[in-house]
Amino acid sequence: MSTTIFVPRDSTALALGADDVARAIEQEAARRGADVRIVRNGSRGMFWLEPLVEVQTAQGRVAYGPVAAGDVPALFDAGFLAGGAHALAHGLTAEIPFLKTQERLTFARVGITDPLSLDDYIAYEGYAGLTRALSMTPAQIVQEVTDSGLRGRGGAAFPTGIKWKTVLGAASATKYIVCNADEGDSGTFSDRMVMEDDPFMLIEGMTIAGLAVGAERGYIYTRSEYPHAIAVTEAAIAIATQAGWLGDDIRGSGRRFHLEVRKGAGAYVCGEETALLESLEGRRGVVRAKPPLPALEGLFGQPTVINNVISLATVPVILARGATFYRDFGMGRSRGTLPFQLAGNIRQGGLVEKAFGITLRQLLVDYGGGTRSGRAIRAVQVGGPLGAYLPESRFDTPMDYEAYAAFGAVVGHGGIVVFDETVDMARMARYAMEFCAIESCGKCTPCRIGSTRGVEVIDRIIAGEQPARQVALVRDLCDTMLNGSLCAMGGMTPYPVLSALNEFPEDFGLAPKPARAA
Amino acid sequence: MPDIAPSNPIERIVNARRDMPGALLPILHEIQDSHGFIPADAVPVIASALNLSRAEVHGVITFYHHFREQPAGCHVVQVCRAEACQAVGAEALAAHAREALGCDFHATTADGRFTLEPVYCLGQCACGPAVMVGEQLHARVDAKRFDALIAALPAAGQDQAEEAQA
């Protein structure tokens, strides 16, 4: 009987040599006359173990990793086709603590299935949500999403159901669903994983959104830096269309939905929804003033639902299991789960989906296992390049939109970037301003000019020229950017800058450097 | 529209896509993918087909970091310089890349083999520093691994031979 071996095709696994490993397994099996079937699955999100090879056994899937092509003969010698012991073996994948204690609702299938197998998708509850949605009225679908408490996972946390209701209520023959897959934040990769490792889930979520608001066309706007995600998502759209899950007559319902991937061109600001719409329409990605809201006048001037990948990818499970099931996870007004992404200097980096309410310390220590370098953690940036830098004193605040907002931080898209004690926070503050200067769309003055002046002033602080005076200037500049910018690019760049200043004054020459353990 | 396909490849690309909504970025991507850059003489062709001014087309090309108006080297080497990679040594790698290739960021080596570009996130943030050569991704890249992956690229003569085959 043939043994099934899983070798991920997620781009992180590929970047660490997964294709070579798959080839080596195939060749070694042929040499030994072993009957194996290799499935290229998605990643389990335990990136420190990639390439993570799994073998299907009677007891379940057994994990080996990180596997290099050169390890393959020894794995065969150790009897890994029967789950044999080896230095790289981790036992049953599902029992690995990092994975076992997660609450994977959105990422339930990710890493388990072949991303382009529609049979796999359906076998693991795929299309159950859309099937139910096809029997509901648009208002009922919108109500279900509203009741689930789902809020925009792109960072702004606006209630998804309310946005959909506005679009549903807008009178227009043409409406659009736009997926914001312009995942430009450093430290985030959950959108990429959805597109590469479970693309049918995003397609299903967008189709449900189309049914809910009366839109028949959707666009997935993603990054040119994500060639793998684009290829897999486009292949999945073709498969879904072929099988009648997309197109002019969705599964014989008479309902219509068409989907297309559009590629950005390396502009971070296009992750801002109105800049994204400009880019989709074929213009420079310059931010629009709001109102009008995109929900009323969005893409090509028509009512448009614009949601992040994770928001849309979470809709199928909400429809399949019901609003109450989803709402029962989480805390306060942050309902459900968030796929947190552990990144930067972290020993066990990867994807951790947990209900809101988990603390940063639990994520960093229990899941992350501390830094990769082995040094102490000094600063953690939560929520992308526009998120605040947090010192250890903030690690016990629960992950909750309101709890974070209360001290000028953001949960954002759930990206968590860890820095050890070698980090120079004045340099990181400078980088935040520099990045804003590189990526500003140029429309509003506080962002366009403020960021460049910010770099100059921080350079003077670093050079030790009257630091106290320069810091007062930086604070004043941040105040202008915070209150005077048109969008989050200029409006939130002060978050990392001010948090660095407030929490790590010693790096700006404003306080003596405390003695640190080596 | 005449049904005779134009012989100019740029006109072919533009004509195939001019009627799609928001056609400009897809057209520019297609031209850059096939030509390696956006030639200056493509601008009036695109502008006329999409009923835009040449300034508008030029404005879009120059707004986006991805589009280039000059040919790149044989290999485009993108080194991630965003926060998550910085946390694990991306700045040291960036300095090494400059030295090893002998050119600065946004520049091409004198022999035309390499173009070095910064990139702000390749989505490999748990396994940085990340580098992309062409469309080939590499994670956990240190100076040694960088040298090895550059050395493994086909030599200049082979580059041309491969191009001739393609």
Describe this structure in words.
The complex is a heterodimer of chains A (518) and B (166). By secondary structure, chain A is an alpha/beta fold. In chain A, 40% of the residues lie in helices and 15% in strands. In chain A, the strands form four sheets. In chain A, strands 2-1-3-4-5 form a five-stranded mixed β-sheet, covered by helices on one side. Chain A has a five-stranded mixed β-sheet with strand order 13-12-16-14-15. A four-stranded parallel β-sheet of chain A has the order 8-7-6-9, sandwiched between helices. In chain A, strand 14 and strand 15 form a beta hairpin. Chain A is globular. By secondary structure, chain B is an alpha+beta fold. Helices cover 45% and strands 12% of the residues of chain B. Chain B is built from eight helices and five strands; from the N terminus they run ααααβααββββαα. In chain B, strands 2-3-1-4-5 form a five-stranded mixed β-sheet, covered by helices on one side. At the A-B interface, helix 1, helix 11, strand 12, strand 16 and helix 17 of A face helix 2, helix 4 and helix 5 of B.
Report how far the terminal alpha carbons of chain B are from each other.
31 Å
The class by helix and strand makeup of chain A works out as alpha/beta
Structural class label of chain B: alpha+beta
User: How many individual β-strands of chain A?
Assistant: 16
If strands are numbered along the chain, what order do they take across the biggest sheet of chain A? 2-1-3-4-5
